[in-house]
Each structure stands twice: as structure tokens, then as C-alpha cells.
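tool=predict chain=A
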Amino acid sequence: INNSPLSSVPTRNSLPNTTVAVGESDVTLYLDGNDRTARQIDFTEGVVLNDSAEKNQGDSAVEEDYKEDSDHDGRYGQNKKESFLKQVENLSSILVIILEQVISSITILLPESFINVFTVMSRFIFSSFKTNNETYNHFLANGESSEEDDVLRKVEKLKNFESFHQICELHGFSAESHLTHTVDGFKLTIHRLNPEANGFKPNGKAVYLQHGLLMTSDVWCVMLDKNDNLPFRLCELGYDVFLGNNRGNKYSNKHSRFKASQKEFWDFSIDEFAMYDIPASLNYILKLKEIDKLIYIGFSQGCSQILSSVSINNDLNDKIEKLILIAPATTPKKLSNWLINSIINFDPQLLYMLFGRKILMKSVMFWRRITYPPMFVKLIDIPNDVLFGWKSYNIDIMQKLVSYYHLYSTTSVKCVVHWFQIIKSKKFQMYQEQDYFQPFEYPTDKTIKIKKLLIIYGMNDSLVDIDVVVGQLPEFHDMRFTQVKDGKVVGQKHIVENVELSSGEEQQDGNYKVKLDDECSELRIYGINKYEHLDLLWGKYMNENVIKNVVDFIH
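tool=predict ok
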């Protein structure tokens, strides 16, 4: 589906127990289609053995033994070289981490006047590089404080606002803050956009939005154009909109027993989000509204949190009417950079020694405060490109000046170590305490019973393997796969009961309407051409790519 949702559609039971797919130079043998386990068998000549070829195997056995002996020394030398290179990679990774910490420590000790000199130098350098964006050029020439430009004034305010309430007020909305408690003692802030309080007629339904890793509820509402913010659009349509905040971020930093200065406060991973945070937040909203179900919208890790939570909290199936997954990162492939892939393979104890047991890279907040804004944008763009291969061409430069300042919030080192374990194992699993303990794998394909599900993903998103995501879901009776380019639909595929329908059949088939009743399970997937991870939060064509599709699905 990553190449095109129209070329091939994965279905959970489409593979028999033993399938052989022949390529030009290799054969992939699927030992168990349902579990999607496979091993690669490489044939140097691209020949598949059949009954007539088996009789020639004996004649070649002696020759193979001779080749094996002669190749042994070569393989030993190759393995030794790879081992040496691996050690160099690991050492390089450690040195980079230490270097960042040393630079941060030194910079903190520098006097403010010295830092201001670097800011002036940065402004001079960036002013020499003009762009096609006249507003940005004006910013480089005059700074944020220009009173002549409405966009620049709005950028300055949105960039510097620290409160969700301030962000909403700038867009003409009033917000509420609610506090809920988890079973293990955390106090979570939930923000609310009440349609009635904002002058819109309530429709009686509630929507809950959950942010991604290292984020807060702010990320949903910082688009410069009010109409490009999904929560505002939903509120205008009468939905009671609630926005969650994970334990450990700036809005949810209280605990009944521990202080944020204690390492016990930061002893959490995705497991705690699944076991405690999601159930506490959803149950609070349902009780407050006195309703039975709500609509859940997740971005990135917010998708992982709900899938893992529902898979181990069976009662949540009955509390979610519809589920929307935007850029669902459940089991990412390896990252784009060899340096970070080396860090992923580190022993957790080494990672804790390098990053500590509390907050992950809190120095980001320091750099955000002292760095010239265009320089800070570069400090985000470059690592995103190096780590994930993201070019961010779909996010306007003025939008970056706002969004990137709300991109990072605090979380635990353990949470990121957990993600490294998932990437390394290629399994959506619980945190692994010790190597000799087998981690519990979230049974998302077996225990999730939510009937209506929408997925929107960027087809250039290195963190989302859509085939893996679909494989982690239960079977659906009705599936639609849509490819979108430049805000326009460029192709569709519709499958009912594992049978692909043409557009004519959809109109003529008398059984078609029966299969789309309320009891039918539906999966809708939108692949956005040339879009990456953050594009689905802050990219152009937000209305066409995300908001319209979400509204059509839930309305």
C-alpha cells in the first residue's frame, strides 16, 4: 500500500499456510500466512527447485561442501570487519550524545550578552538568503515585532504562547481545563472546547484527540489559518471536543506521591499510557457527558496508545464509536540514519547511563529559548531529515516558525527506550525489563472490536508501514483504499468480503447495501501522496487531506 493503495491490498487471511513467491533472485517462503512470519531463501541463479531438479542435488553436494570450506575464511573476515564497523558506530553514537550534553552545559554558563552576539550573527546570515515567501523575507528583514504585517503579529503570538487557552483565544475560541486522576496517581489535564460555550449548537457527541510522542494538546491548534485546525472545525459542527495530555508533559506534571524531580515520577513507558492514562481520560469524559460512547482521534503515538489500550482493556471497545488513526506509528521500521539505528540496538542500561532516568533531552527547551527562530527551525529540520528522511516541503516556512515551538514537550527516557525495543524487535510489545523475559505482545488483531476505523497516513512517512498497521488490525467486512495527491483523489479501491468491487457493481449489487449496515465493520484508508509524518498536522491542504475526510467519516 505504501507504493500505491491501488496496487495490492493486504488481507489478514489472504495467504495460505505455505506460500512461495518467486522473484528475480530470491524466494520468500511464508511459513504461516496468518502470523505473517517469513524467512528469505536466496537463490544465486534464481532457480526454483522442483521434483525433476531434486535428483541433481546429490551430484552437487560434494561441490557445495568444497565451496563451503573455501568460503569459510572469507565469511570469517567479513564478519570480523562488520563487527569492527559496528563498534565504531556505537562509539560514534556515544560521542555525539556526550558532545550535545557538553555543548549545552557550556552554553548555559555563557553570559546573555555573549549569546546575543550569536543571535545577531545568525540574523545577519539568514537575511542573506531570500525565499519565495515575501512574508518570511519581511520577517528576516524586520523581525517578529513588525506592526505592519498581520501574519507576523499572529506568528509572534502563537509562537510565544505557553497556554492552550491563549492559543484558542487568539483563534476566537474559549477553552476549559479538566483534571482527571489515574489509578497509579498521575493527574492528567484534559482540555475542552465546549460548542455551546463557543456559540455553536451541540450535536450531543464527544470527540477525544490524543497527541503524539514529545507533544501536548497544543499541536492540534497552532495552524495559522483557524480553519486548518481540526478541533476548531469539529467544535463548529457541534462536537464536544476534548484534548488529552500524556503524563509527564507540561500540562500533566503532577503526581499524588512523587515530585517531577524524582526518578520514580518518570518510571513510565507506553504500557502506562495504555493501562492507566487512556482509560482514565475516556472514562472521565463519558461520565462528565453522561454518554456511552465517544469518537477517538489519535496522531502518531496517540494511535499506538489507543490500540494498545483497547487490546488490554476489553471494555473500551464498547466506549469508542469510531476510531481515527492519523500517521499511526505502531511498529516503525528502522530509522533513516545509521547513527540512530546504532543507538536503537544499545542495551537499555547504556541508554539510561547516557540519557538518565528522568526527562528525555530537556536541553531542547533551553535551545528553543535562546536560538534565533529561523535557526531553531533549521535545528529541527536537519535532525528530522537525518533521522527520518523528512524534507518537510509540505509545511510552509511561516507555519514552521509557530509549530516547531510547540513540537517538543517532556516525556520519560523510558518511553523512548520502549520505542527502541519495538523497532528492534519489529513487534508491538510491552516494555521488556530483562532480555531473558519474553515481552507481552499487544493482541491488537484479536481483541479490538471497534467497527468503524479510519486511517490517514503520509505515503512518504518513514515511521508508518501501512501494511504492518493493517496486519495488526482485525478483519473488516468493508474496506476502501483511497490515494490523494495535491488534495485531490487520484485513485480508489473498494473491497467487500475480500471481493473487489468496481464502481458499477457498487451501484447495481443488491447485496451491497446489506453489507453496509450498522453491524458491518468498515475500514477506510487514505494514503496522502508525498506526505510525511508532521505534514498531517501542519501541512498544506489540511482541509482536503485530513479535516474533510475525518468529518465525512464521523458526521
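Residues 1-5, 7-57 have pLDDT under 50 and may be disordered. The two ends are 27 Å apart (CA to CA).
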